[in-house]
Every structure is written in C-alpha cells, then in structure tokens.
C-alpha cells in the first residue's frame, strides 16, 4: 500500500492576505490534478491576518486534496489579559483546523519554554485542533552530542498530560534548528532518519504502541533535490517545508515527484 503523504508549509511572516489567497487558489487547483487515490494530508500555515480569507479561499475551491489551514502560534487561554495574543476560540471561530506549536523561531527568537509549549499543546488538543509540535536541536547542542536528549526533553515536557484519545490529532515536526532557513544546511537523509527514529522511540515510551502511529515530519531546507531521498526514509512520514514551498508551482512539482 502506498505511504500516506503529509506535506505542509509555514509561510512565516511572509505573504499578505491577497498573496495568500492567490497562493492557495493556485495550490488548490494544482493539487486537484494529483491522482485522487494519492493519500495526502496537505496544510498551509499563513500569518494570523490572512487566516480568515485563507479559510474562505480553500472552502470556495472543491479539490480532491483539500488544504487544511493552520495558525503559527496560539495563546493557551480561552480569553484574558494577553494583549497581542490570539486565543483558541478566536482561531476556532475562523475555521482554522491546525495549530503549530514550538516552531524554532518561537523557541529561540521569542524564548518560549518547553513548559509554555506544553500548555499550548494541551489547549490546542482540548479544542480539537490538529496539533503540530515542532522539536529540534540547535547546532551547539548537536556539537555537544546531546541532540537525542534535547529531542526527548522537548517531547516529554511538550506532550506531558496528552491522553491516548488525543493522539490522532497530534503531529510532530523534527526541525533541526541548524537546518532551517537561508543559513541552514539540510540534514542528510541518514541523520534526519536517525533522529526521527529517536523521536518515534520516545513517542512509543510515552504512549505505547499507539505512539508509533503519530506522524513525524522532517523540516529544514527541504528542496526538490533532497525531498525524494528524505521522503523514502522509514521514519519520515512527511515533509514540512519553508522556502521551497512558497511558490505554488514549485510546491506542486516537489509533491508530484514523490
Ligand atoms: C521552517 O522554517 O520551518 C523551515 C522548514 O524552513 P526552510 O524549509 O526554509 O528551511
């Protein structure tokens, strides 16, 4: 049986509202040309200001492979004195289906802790969002050879309190910090697969054999050249892509080649 394919992109603080709508319209039309029996979960995570129109855009196009819209962050509280933040209820009201938590830029630029990511994970699951927790080691941690411990810590704290019934909504993205963005060096397929095996082992320790069903994606300088080799690795269930997916045609070409 063909492997289920998970593809997603985080648009970060790029693309305004109109650009996001154009991008999604093009991507929906292109992904509709992929074979109907291709088992695909496709998601796009635009900035907050584009969410409302993004949801409307994907709803207005009937595609064989509908695109799920996600948010880049979320305050764990339903409401309160948190100026500048966005609550789960606000995202729900817009029709957002997925929430990304703990992207490396949230952890390292905005100094979010594992405990804060955990509160967000629990809130996102409580509100039944597809919940994408990002984990990954820095270059310094890699050089100290403590990547496995870092990943296990991020998972054990980040997922503390998650119940077995919530697991179908959970997704994990392994994104080594040193591999992300313009200064990033893509992880080799062997390295990425070895770390994803560590993640899967930890998920099994946390949740038993159901933990093995949680999809784990690789992200960090994925491009059309390295995508095929990454994709066939046994512990990589999907690709989470930045720059190489921000042009709808390029994203489609990358997806259709796998
Ligand atoms: C990211 O920032 O999550 C990411 C994967 O970016 P890129 O593919 O551009 O390295």
UniProtKB/TrEMBL annotation:
Cellular compartment(s): Cytoplasm
Keyword tRNA-binding (UniProt): no
Catalytic activities: D-glyceraldehyde 3-phosphate = dihydroxyacetone phosphate
SUPFAM superfamilies reported in the protein's UniProt record: Triosephosphate isomerase (TIM)
Coiled coil regions, renumbered to chain: none
Keyword Cytoplasm included in the entry's annotation: yes
Entry protein name: Triosephosphate isomerase
Species: Exercitatus varius
Highest classification ranks of the organism: Bacteria, Pseudomonadati, Pseudomonadota, Gammaproteobacteria, Pasteurellales
């Amino acid at each position: 049986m063909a492997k289920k394919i998970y593809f997603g992109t985080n648009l970060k603080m790029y693309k305004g509202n109109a650009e996001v709508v154009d991008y999604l319209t093009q991507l929906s039309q292109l992904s509709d040309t992929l074979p109907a029996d291709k088992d695909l979960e496709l998601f796009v995570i635009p900035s907050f200001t584009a969410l409302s129109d993004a949801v409307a855009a994907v709803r207005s196009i009937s595609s064989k492979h509908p695109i799920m819209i996600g948010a880049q962050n979320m305050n764990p509280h339903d409401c309160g004195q948190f100026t500048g933040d966005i609550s789960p209820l606000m995202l729900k009201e817009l029709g957002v289906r997925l929430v990304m938590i703990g992207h490396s830029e949230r952890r390292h630029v905005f100094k979010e802790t594992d405990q804060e990511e955990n509160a967000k994970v629990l809130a996102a699951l409580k509100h039944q969002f597809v919940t994408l927790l990002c984990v990954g080691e820095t270059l310094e941690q890699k050089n100290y050879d403590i990547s496995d411990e870092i990943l296990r810590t991020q998972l054990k704290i980040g997922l503390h309190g998650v119940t077995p019934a919530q697991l179908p909504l959970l997704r994990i993205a392994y994104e080594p910090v040193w591999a992300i963005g313009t200064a990033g060096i893509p992880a080799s397929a062997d390295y990425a697969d070895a770390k994803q095996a560590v993640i899967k082992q930890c998920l099994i320790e946390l949740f038993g054999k159901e933990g093995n069903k949680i999809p784990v994606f690789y992200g960090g300088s994925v491009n059309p050249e390295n995508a095929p080799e990454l994709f066939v690795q046994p512990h990589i269930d999907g690709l989470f892509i930045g720059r190489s997916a921000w042009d709808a045609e390029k994203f489609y070409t990358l997806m259709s080649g796998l």
